[in-house]
């Protein structure tokens, strides 16, 4: 009898402990985000496109949550410094990361020793936007589309130089993917950012580049550059006449995007709430106008799980390009 009572007491205590732990585990999600401001880590210096857009998102997201969101810039090492800070932070809902596709998906393949495990230590929350990069040439290059560009390159006695905004950048890896599929020979000339690249392209120092869809636009509109193709899965809103690589016979289905992540321990309830609020705010007129200014298609609506699948797919695809071409960091 005593044994049965002791057993029953033990079972009841176990149930009580389980209930207590379950309650404790849900308290942060239930009270969040009333305790203190939320820190949004941005892995770039202040003033750039990623930083500016992050502050627009932070302002609207903070209003939706009824809590202040403080942007904290931690630039350097192609996003690794800021992303490491976020990955190692407490998963209490008060730290989130606003970052970009290349920093998340390319770094694991480029870096010999990652300071964190992307898939295990960062939790995908929401994708924001989707776009590509332009294949642009100087106006005197006798090409009007991808096919004529490939034909022109193949006729040159020496490999043609092309520029990108750095080793391992989206522009660099996209052109290497084009080379893999078409057999054309080009030499990569890396620049330290889009500004110097566009300056040299406009001066004729290089005739070919994969460059971003914002800084090149004035030159495309003036006729100084010709945009022959855009990477990614869709055409840019400002240049609907420029077809994608895939539409021109070179399959390429990787988009550039911004994304919000959280430390791995962040409760699912918080992640889902953030995703729901972000999904609503990207439909706001101001945000849509910002997408247009950035020549970026409107943001796709994805659950955290769907965004996570995008991250895994992109890491695999970009990694294959890096490994196949033996691309090393500077």
From TrEMBL:
The keyword Signal applies. It holds the Pfam family TctC. Residues 1-29 form the signal peptide. Keywords: Signal. PANTHER family: BLR1237 PROTEIN, TRICARBOXYLATE-BINDING PROTEIN. Belongs to the UPF0065 (bug) family. This is Tripartite tricarboxylate transporter substrate binding protein.
């Amino acid at each position: 009898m005593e044994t049965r009572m002791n057993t029953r007491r033990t079972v009841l205590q176990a149930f009580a402990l389980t209930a207590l732990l379950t309650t404790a585990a849900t308290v942060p999600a239930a009270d969040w985000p009333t305790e203190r401001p939320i820190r949004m880590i941005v892995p770039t210096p202040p003033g750039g496109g990623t930083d500016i857009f992050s502050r627009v998102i932070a302002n609207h997201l903070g209003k939706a949550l009824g809590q202040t969101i403080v942007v904290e810039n931690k630039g350097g090492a192609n996003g690794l410094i800021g992303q490491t800070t976020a990955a190692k932070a407490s998963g209490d809902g008060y730290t989130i990361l606003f970052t970009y596709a290349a920093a998340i998906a390319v770094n694991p393949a480029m870096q010999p020793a990652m300071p964190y495990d992307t898939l295990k230590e960062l939790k995908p929350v929401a994708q924001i936007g989707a776009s590509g990069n332009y294949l642009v040439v100087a106006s005197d290059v006798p090409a009007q589309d991808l096919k004529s560009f490939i034909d022109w390159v193949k006729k040159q006695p020496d490999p043609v130089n092309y520029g990108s905004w750095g080793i391992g950048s989206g522009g660099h890896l996209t052109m290497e993917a084009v080379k893999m599929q078409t057999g054309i020979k080009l030499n990569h000339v890396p620049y330290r950012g889009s500004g110097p690249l566009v300056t040299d392209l406009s001066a004729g120092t290089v005739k070919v580049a994969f460059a971003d869809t914002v800084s090149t636009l004035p030159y495309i509109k003036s006729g100084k550059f010709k945009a022959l193709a855009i990477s990614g899965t869709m055409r840019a809103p400002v240049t609907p006449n420029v077809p994608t690589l895939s539409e021109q016979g070179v399959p390429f289905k990787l988009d550039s995007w911004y994304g919000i992540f959280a430390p791995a321990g962040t409760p699912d309830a918080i992640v889902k709430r953030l995703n729901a609020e972000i999904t609503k705010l990207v439909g706001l007129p101001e945000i849509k106008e910002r997408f247009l200014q950035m020549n970026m298609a409107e943001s796709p609506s994805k659950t955290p799980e769907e965004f996570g699948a995008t991250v895994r797919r992109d890491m695999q695809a970009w990694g294959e390009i890096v490994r196949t071409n033996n691309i090393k960091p500077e």
